[in-house]
Design a protein that fits this description.
Layout: E1 10-12, E2 19-22, H1 29-34, E3 40-45, H2 50-60, E4 71-76, H3 82-95, E5 100-106, H4 109-113, E6 118-121, H5 133-154, E7 160-163, H6 168-177, E8 187-189, H7 192-206, E9 213-214, E10 217-219, E11 227-229, E12 234-235, E13 238-239, H8 240-243, H9 247-250, H10 253-259, H11 261-269, H12 275-290, E14 298-303, E15 316-324, E16 327-330, H13 338-360
Helix pairs in contact: 2-12, 5-6, 6-13, 7-10
Amino acid sequence: MIRRPPRSTLDRSSAASDVYKRKVSTQSTWDQKNMEKKPLVVCITGAAGQIGYSLLPLVASGEMFGKDQPIELRMLDITPCLESLKGSAMELQDCAYPVLTAVKYGADPKEMFKDMDVGLFVGGFPRKDGMERKDLIAKNCGIFKEQGKALEAVGKPSAKILVVANPANTNCLTLSANAPKIPKKNFSCLTRLDHNRALAQLADKAKTTVDKVKNVIIWGNHSSTQYPDVSHGTITGKPIHEVIPDEKYLHGDFLTTVQKRGGAIIAARKASSALSAANAVKDHMRSWYFGTPEGEWVSMGVIAPDNKYGVDPNLCFSFPVKCKGLEYEIVDGLAWDAFSKEKIAATQKELQEERAEAALIQLISS
């Protein structure tokens, strides 16, 4: 029998990015059963930020990818944040998570993306007072163009990518355009936060719990033009329109509350959503990896050139999807009434404008 050092010992590399590797104990039942399983390499960009920090325990504890899945965690951020990442690495060590086999951090995308299985792209430039949308697009799409090139250089074609940083849809489109060796179906952007917000608002209105609310849809952009659609959803198995027979609310306050929830949180806590955003990332990846329950769907921003809804095929657009076997499938055949068509057209138009602005500054196509 090979003797291994006790769980608490770690190896520290002399490399500039600081690599920690856990040497697990043979005494642990978890170790005996699961350490033969290949670690999943997960990279979080913008890991020193609030959302990135909130994501660390969800990934490292097994909450996101399962309690039997070993994790090699990588944290990417800009050079001034490396000392902060060093502290996060220390905290991860102190948490003694059984599934966490290694932690690595650094500022070089190529180093962090090499052999990566899952990329959680959280890092981006925040919108500041007086900043126009085109300026935000220019700043962030520039970041995602360079990260896309790094993905293309060293990334695995099988990598699964989730973009969280705003403007998430157009950032995702830019990232994909600059990493063509990775299939478009492997890229997604986060609209699960909006989806969860919609579930919570409806459950509160109906005086029930969120698990009783099913098949709400977020169409389009992760912005104030998104369309939270209840037309095909249910509460306790009944159509939402029957449980909440208040069209004025469903077409009014419900929509605006979900659409503007992020701004309301910023106004209240003087900082953007972090806890709920990280939780939504966890939900998004769990659905993608473990599948959605039979007869249920969730919302994901995806690049879908073959979608059956007539949505511009060259956008990253939020659709209802079912997941199974590490793949997603858009739910087809859902009817749009006149109100839905108007809202979906508006959010599509905004995404087309964002794409045009990005193309004008030659971030997507060049």
